[in-house]
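Record copied across here:
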Amino acid sequence: MILPIVAYGDPVLKKQAKEITKDYPNLDTLIDNMFETMYGAYGVGLAAPQIGLSIRLFIVDASPFAEDDDLSKEEKEQLKDFKRVFINPIILEETGDEWAFNEGCLSIPDVREDVFRQPNIKIQYQDQDFNTHTEELSGLAARVFQHEYDHIEGVLFTDKLSALKKRLIKGKLANISKGKINVDYRMKFPLMKKKR
């Protein structure tokens, strides 16, 4: 089932999400719905807060990036199978010189900006069966993870922009929260005036 994606301005996007356990109700269905929702919006990642649930869960499928001719063969290989469910993830360490990449977000349609992040991360997380994994990610795989991880920490990519950039997109963000934007997927706008 395709769920509405929560738009910029909703308080759930600014909350630090809570850990979940094996007995979280209908978890498999929720994960299936999240994948369906993400694919329906042509996303490569979706965090539970983006569908209104403040829990430490996100999904990624970075395989569309594997088609990018600018990437190295190794990176294409890494991304083509990078489809995962991350439950209760933590970043153990981030290393390397920060690099910029143009990021967007399903909760903030039509806004794309360069965000600086470190290229290498070591993470720990649980999969859909609650097995614990420790793993190292780099490049775009790390970035997709970091972007979604920020969501469960209550951080949006726009929070990482300079004061000037924030001022320049302020009006756009206000319009998104009011629903004054055309999107081709279901969304829930926090400040949209109810139609009488």
The CA atoms of residues 123 and 135 lie 5 Å apart. The chain is about 25% helix and 30% strand. The beta strands are 5-6, 45-47, 57-61, 83-95, 99-105, 108-117, 120-126, 132-138, 187-188.
